[in-house]
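Quick one:
INPUT:
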């Protein structure tokens, strides 16, 4: 059976080095040591997945303190382009994943142009790298969400139980996107759409491979946590003056927590776009044994796809499915 490579070449080398460090000496069998190891690996992978977004957010904060307002929009656009190129050149993102990131750009920029025209939020005037009055770096903010989504899917080798049908997800995601435009002219359907999203993913569970253990989490919880995290990032960005809501024009104050609902709905669009590259695989479709992890680390640098490992023997994996590694609930 063929399974997709879970690492770029750079990430494969980091993965091998990290495993040599973590597994050196003795195995962390004690519960506390095991928990600490898994917790640190989880945090490190999350931070690695957020690399593009964190660098872009940091650039906004630095630009607000160092770059004159008239040049700030163009400076942020140039920095965002360099960051995106760096992700590719240094092997942190694949060309295949870039397709999703660029799609996030297009979807996000179209909404930015409309929303700023309707007065939902605004940017500082000035700059040459703009489209319909919207600085081009705005699309990179949506691209940062896309970058995180595709990388976290790969780094944690996500698998799903009871994933909704793709066409249903596409219909609901399209409805969410259209409502971002339509609620300015028609009754706002966000609460109906929110209920549909909850019904769609109510029984869906996500399996997250960390180091040795696999954690299970409801997809709705994961989407909610990401929405809250984006809301925190949005507060930093508006404080840095990247854009402003009408109530922040006179003086900055935190973004209303109700925006978390909008970001949660955006997660539905994000999930639909990411599954264009990474179809949602069932939890039993791959084996997360120590042997398969070592194989992936040894060969991912030289191959994009590799064969899953397993116990010696001629039996094909597809015909003799084995349980995944011990799951932690």
């Amino acid at each position: 059976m063929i399974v997709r490579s879970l690492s770029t070449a750079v990430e494969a080398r980091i993965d091998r080095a990290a495993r040599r460090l973590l597994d050196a000496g003795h195995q962390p069998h004690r519960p506390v040591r095991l928990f600490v190891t898994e917790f640190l690996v989880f945090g490190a992978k999350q931070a690695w997945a957020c690399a593009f977004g964190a660098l872009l957010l940091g650039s906004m904060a630095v630009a607000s303190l160092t770059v004159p307002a008239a040049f700030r929009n163009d400076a942020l656009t140039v920095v965002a382009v360099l960051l995106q190129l760096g992700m590719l050149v240094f092997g942190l993102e694949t060309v295949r994943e870039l397709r999703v990131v660029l799609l996030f750009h297009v979807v996000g920029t179209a909404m930015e142009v409309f929303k700023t025209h309707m007065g939902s939020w605004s940017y500082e005037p000035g700059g040459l790298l703009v489209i319909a009055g919207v600085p081009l770096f705005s699309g990179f903010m949506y691209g940062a969400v896309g970058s995180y989504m595709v990388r976290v899917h790969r780094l944690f080798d996500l698998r799903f139980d009871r994933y909704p049908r793709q066409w249903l997800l596409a219909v609901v995601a399209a409805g969410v996107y259209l409502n971002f435009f339509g609620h300015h002219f028609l009754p706002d359907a966000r609460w109906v759409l929110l209920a549909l999203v909850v019904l769609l993913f109510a029984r869906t569970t996500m399996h997250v491979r960390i180091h040795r253990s696999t954690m299970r989490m409801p997809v709705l919880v994961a989407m909610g946590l990401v929405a809250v995290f984006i809301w925190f990032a949005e507060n930093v960005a508006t404080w840095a003056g990247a854009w402003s809501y009408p109530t922040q024009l006179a003086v900055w104050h935190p973004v209303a927590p109700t925006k978390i609902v909008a970001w949660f709905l955006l997660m539905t669009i994000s999930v639909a776009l990411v599954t264009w590259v990474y179809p949602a695989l069932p939890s039993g479709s791959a084996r997360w044994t120590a042997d398969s992890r070592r194989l992936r680390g040894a060969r991912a640098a030289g191959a994009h796809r590799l064969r899953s490992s397993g116990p010696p023997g001629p039996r094909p994996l597809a015909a003799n499915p084995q349980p995944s590694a011990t799951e932690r609930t």
